[in-house]
Amino acid sequence: MLPPSATIASDLMPKLTLLLAMAQRGHLSAAAQAVGVPQPTATRWLTALSRTAGVALTQQVGRRVELTRAGFALAEAVRSVHTSLAVGVARAHEAADPGRGQVGFGFLRTMGASRAPELLRGYRVVRPRVRLTLVQAAHEALIEKLHDGTIDIALSSVRATDADVLATELFREPFVLVVPADHRLARRESVRLHDCRDETFVGLSAGIALRRRVDELFAAAGVRPRYGFETEEVETVRGLATAGVGVTVLPARHGGPLAGSAEVPITPRHYRHIGLLVSTRRALEPAAEGFRQWASQHR
């Protein structure tokens, strides 16, 4: 059952539309025809509207019924509401159009240098009218934003432990040992983590998802890394390793190693799996679903 306020609003809307039509057309008969009601019905509506407003909105001028100053004042207010409503309806149609609308797209900070821009560049070519809202965040924050509707789709790690998340894998990144180009291990075709157990490491701060994944690799290899420096940003870690402050284990850099560094594949091979994530708690709007389908086909 509708609340009283909703019932009142529903009752007033056609009457206010008639009032606006009178202001635009100048007299009752033309206004009644414009809104599609018989003139006797229009007369009753305006009488009821005057009673609700507590002031006369119409007056008899000869054989015509016209608006009073009060009627014109209320009609002007209705005009503003009508314009806002028209804009809202246009936006609703836009949101329902997969070729327009808006998409909230989140991605890991490590995807911001090339992977996400490349994906977005290709999408803009085929869907130039879709508005994209971009968010960079850590994996856990992206999952939270998916569930609360802040973003529609995320480019992030694929993990079986994420509840109520549907993932479509796009690519995988091998984990490598990042060292200075003149490091003793730089020219190796591959390296086992046990081979660098005595090195000083630089890494991400404890608690960051990628750090936990790297620590899992060390644990599986029976190695307890000695961290000399820890920081929040992946590219800072990569830069510190390139500068010789320590070595690090990271996913391979898209586009190749930084100048002055080498990336040595780790054996046995391990990968970070990256995909498009959506929340199963929320249905995607047409534009977002269109983006998901397009991106899934352009891996």
UniProtKB/TrEMBL annotation:
Matches recorded under InterPro entries: LysR_HTH_N, LysR_subst-bd, WH-like_DNA-bd_sf, WH_DNA-bd_sf
Q: Which GO terms describe its molecular function?
A: DNA binding; DNA-binding transcription factor activity
Family affiliation? Belongs to the LysR transcriptional regulatory family.
- Per UniProt, which keywords does this protein have? DNA-binding, Transcription, Transcription regulation
The entry's cellular-component GO terms read: protein-DNA complex
Name-wise, this protein is: LysR family transcriptional regulator
The UniProt record lists the HTH lysR-type domain at 16-68
